[in-house]
Amino acid sequence: MTTNQIKRYSLSQQVADQLESRIADGVYAVGEKIPTETELAEMFDVSRNTLREVIQCLTSVGILEVRQGNGTYVRATNRFHVYMKKEYEKVSLENILEVRNALEITIAQLAAKCRTEEDLTAIRQALFQRQQNLSPIRENTQADVNFHMAIAQACHNGILLNLYLSISSYLEDHISKRQKATTMEPLQIDQLHEELYQSIVQQNDHQALLCVQNILKI
Amino acid sequence: MTTNQIKRYSLSQQVADQLESRIADGVYAVGEKIPTETELAEMFDVSRNTLREVIQCLTSVGILEVRQGNGTYVRATNRFHVYMKKEYEKVSLENILEVRNALEITIAQLAAKCRTEEDLTAIRQALFQRQQNLSPIRENTQADVNFHMAIAQACHNGILLNLYLSISSYLEDHISKRQKATTMEPLQIDQLHEELYQSIVQQNDHQALLCVQNILKI
DNA sequence: ATCCATTTGTGCGTATGTATC
DNA sequence: CGATACATACGCACAAATGGA
Q1: Which residues of B touch chain A, with CB atoms under 8 Å apart?
Q2: Residue A55, class by beta-carbon neighbours within 10 Å (0-12 exposed, 13-18 middle, 19+ buried)?
Q3: What whole-number distance in Å separates Cα of residue A196 and Cα of residue A104?
C-alpha cells in the first residue's frame, strides 16, 4: 500500500492523520495503551524513526502520552477538546461559567427552533431516565448530562455541540458538586426540566430561554 | 550547557513552546519565512534533528508550512485559530452565524456589566473613529471591527474574546460584503452603535442586548 | 538548458540517561 | 545491584527539491 501519496503531505504526516483518526474513531480508547513503536511501524509500513515523529506530534498536541520504559497511552480523543481544555485552564471559573451559561441559552433557543421529531424522542427518553433516577440523587448527574446533551444535539450546530461537550467534560466535577449542594427540591428541579422539554416541543424559543435561565439558577 | 531542564518536558517540546510563543508574539509574521533549520538549531542551541522535531510538530498543528528546498513559512499565529478554523470549515455558514450572534449578545451583556473606565475610553475612541469614516463606506469595516473588538475586550473573558477573534477573522469577507449590501442608512447604523455604547456606559445589560440584536439585523 | 548553492528530507550510528524487572 | 530495553539528543552523510546564475 502506502503509495497513494500526493506527496503534498509528508509520510509521517499521513501516518499521524491515520493514527489520529483511529483514536478519534475509538479504536484505541482513552487511557488505553497503544501498540509498541515497532509494532505500529510494521502496521503502517514505515521506519521506526518516522513512527517516532508521528508519536512525537500526537504527544505535543496532547492526544498521546509516552511513559518511558512502559508504553504509549491515549490521553484524549481529539485536538479540539485538548485545546479547549488548555483555554479553560487559562481563565477563571467565573469566566468558564459565563461561557457555559451563554451556550446553554443559545442551544436551548436553537433546539426549540430546529428540533426534529427524532430529537424530541431522544430528549423525552433522557427526561424519563432522569425522572426514574430522582430518588437516588447520586446517579442523577449522568441522566442530567444525557438530557442536556440530547438538547445540544437537537440544535443541529456542530460548533455549539463541540463547545458544549468540551465545557461539560471540563466542568463535570463542578456540576455534580453543585447539584448535590442545592437546596432545591428534586421534584421542583424535575418540573423545570419538564417545562424546558415542553417549550422545545412547542417550538417556543422564548419560553425555552426562560426555562434554561431558571435551571441555571440551581 | 543548557541543563536547566526540569526534564518533565523534552527538549524539543521546550523549543517548540519557545518558537510557538515567538510566532504568537509576531516575531515571525504570517506568510513570512522563518530562519533555516541550521540557523534555528544554532539559535536554540540544539541539534538539527531536535529542531526538525520542533518544526514537524508546529507543522502538524498548522502553524508552520515546510517547502522542501525553499524554506519554512508561518501559516497561523496560534493553535486556537487553526483549530477553530477547521471546525468552522466543517459546518454551514448558517451555523457559524448562529455562533457569532450568540457571542455578540453574550459579549455585549457582559461588557455592560464588567466594563472599566479604561474599557469605556477604548470603546469611545473606536466609536469616534467609526463616525469619522462614515462617508467613505469602504474603509468602514476596519473601524467597525475595532469597535466590536473593544467591546469584546471589555467583557473580560479570555475564552469569549478568543472565540470572537477566531470567528471574526474567519467571517471577515462575509461581514464586509454584507455591510456594503445593506439598505440601511449609514447614519441610522451609527445611531445603533451609539446606543450600544451608551447602554454599556450605563451598565444596562438588558438595553445592550436589545441594541446588539438590532445591529445584528443589519 | 545546465549547473550550483541553498534548504529540507531521510537514514544510520553513537552516547547518555532512565525506567523496569 | 545489575541487566535490559527504551528514550533522548547529537552528529554525519547523502538524497531530493528549489531557485537563481
Answers
A1: 12-13, 16, 53, 56-57, 59-61, 66, 79-80, 83, 87-88, 90-91, 95-96, 98-99, 102-103, 105-106, 110, 156-160, 162
A2: buried
A3: 12
For residue B202, the number of C-alpha atoms closer than 13 Å in the C-beta half-sphere is 11
Confidence category of residue A139, pLDDT binned at 50, 70, 90: low
Q: Looking at CA atoms only, how far is residue A15 from chain B in angstroms?
A: 11
* pLDDT computed for residue A48 by the predictor: 67
Q: What is the pLDDT of residue A73?
A: 77
Q: Report d(CA B4, CA B209) in Å as an integer.
A: 52
Could you tell me the distance in Å between the CA of residue A80 and the C1' of nucleotide D6?
31
CB B132 within 8 A of CB B141: no
C-alpha cell at A81: 477538546
Task: List, for residues A42-56, the tens digit of each pLDDT value.
Answer: 677 676 667 777 777
B66: β partners: B72
Interface size, chain A vs chain B, as Cβ–Cβ contacts under 8 Å? 83
Nucleotides of D under 7 A from a protein CB: 5-12, 16-19
> 3-class SS at A115?
coil
CA–CA gap between residue A11 and residue A63 (Å, rounded): 19
Which residue bears the cell 534533528?
B49
Half-sphere exposure (CA, 13 Å, Cβ side) for B143?
20
Q: Whole-angstrom Cα distance, residue A4 to residue A211?
A: 54
C-alpha dihedral over A212, A214, A216, A217, to 10 degrees?
170
Backbone φ and ψ of A72, nearest 5°: -115, 130
Supply B98's cell numbers: 448562529
B102/A99 CB distance under 8 A: no
Give the distance from CA A140 to its chain's centroid. 18
pLDDT band at A70 (very low <50, low <70, confident <90, very high): low
pLDDT over threshold 60, residue A7: no
- The candidate with the shortest Cα–Cα distance to A116, out of A192, A212, A203, A196, is A203
Q: Is B116 helix (H, G, I), strand (E, B) or coil?
A: coil
Interface touch A61/B61, C-beta < 8 Å: yes
Residue A44, Cβ neighbours under 10 Å: how many? 20
Over residues A111-136, the pLDDT tens digits come to 999 999 999 999 999 999 888 876 55
Rounded to whole angstroms, the Cα distance separating B69 from B160 reads 41
